[in-house]
Hints:
Elements: H1 6-20, H2 26-30, E1 40-47, E2 50-56, E3 64-69, E4 72-76, H3 84-92, E5 101-103, H4 109-112, H5 115-119, E6 124-128, H6 129-137, E7 140-143, E8 146-148, E9 158-160, E10 163-168, E11 171-177, E12 187-191, E13 196-198, H7 219-232, E14 238-240, H8 249-271, H9 276-281, H10 298-308
Parallel strand pairs: 4-5, 5-6, 6-9, 13-14
Antiparallel strand pairs: 1-2, 2-3, 3-4, 7-8, 10-11, 11-12, 12-13
Amino acid sequence: MQKRPHNIKRILALTIGLIGAQIFIPALAHGHGNGEPKLGFKTEKVSGSVYMLSGDGGFTGGNIGLSIGEDGVAMIDNGLPSVIELLKTEIAKTTDKPVDYLINTHVHGDHIGNNAAYGASDTQIVSHDNLRKSLKEKGMAIGGGKNIPAPKAHLPVITFSDQMTIHLNGDAAQIIHFAKAHTDGDAVIKFKEANVIHTGDILFNGMFPYIDTSNGGSYVGVKAALQGIYDMADEETLIIPGHGPIAKKENIASTIAMLEESYNAVKALRDKGMSEQEIIAAKPLEEFSSFHWGFITTEKMIQQLLEAL
Ligand SMILES: [Zn+2]
């Protein structure tokens, strides 16, 4: 599996940081006009009716899943608010049908930033119970523990507690909740016939994960959810992660191993009575340096693990 160039990790980190500051730099959204790549989406056909849309030339938000077929369109997540026109333009290259169902994987603004743009029309927004509750009470999470109000059009109209299934395009999209993982309202979607799973941000493929404890996430929950996804997959399953390239079952296994080994390495140092600064200086995660990226640096990962002990 090819890795994304490091500059994408940097742009992603920069933009997630900017979301925290509630700033969307137009230059990032529309290209710099000085020969740097123009921001857009690219579409990859994954399997069966399922496609993946991801940022091209910069950061557009989390990976988007689409099921397009004779019955209509179901979409999983919808990127940053600033990319709505780019998103619509890209989808129109594959279908002229409207989006019937919009499934939200979790509360972060780089995944559900455009809910209102769809919710104001005939699109039915679907999410876990906790996500609707969180949007209604706290608003949309934009990073750094900050939230912006979610108007009515932004709110899911169909919610579920454990799991539900949408039948369309000759497939069954099974939507499953994993408790207290990346957040407390996570949904994972499995297309049974296409044999494709969209993990939301439970999987950052090839990067240290962000565990959003301020929105109910937990290390234990992320590990349990990854194990659940592993058990749902077979050797042929194609896995759309929240961020990063398409994954296979083996990438889930290596992510679980990385998490467990990292946790044990940090715990061993903490058990010796070392302080956070001493643990960071001891470089316990050096073996996993390829997972380091701008938003979840090795230092930040150590802090997340210390919080989980
Ligand atoms: Zn997220």
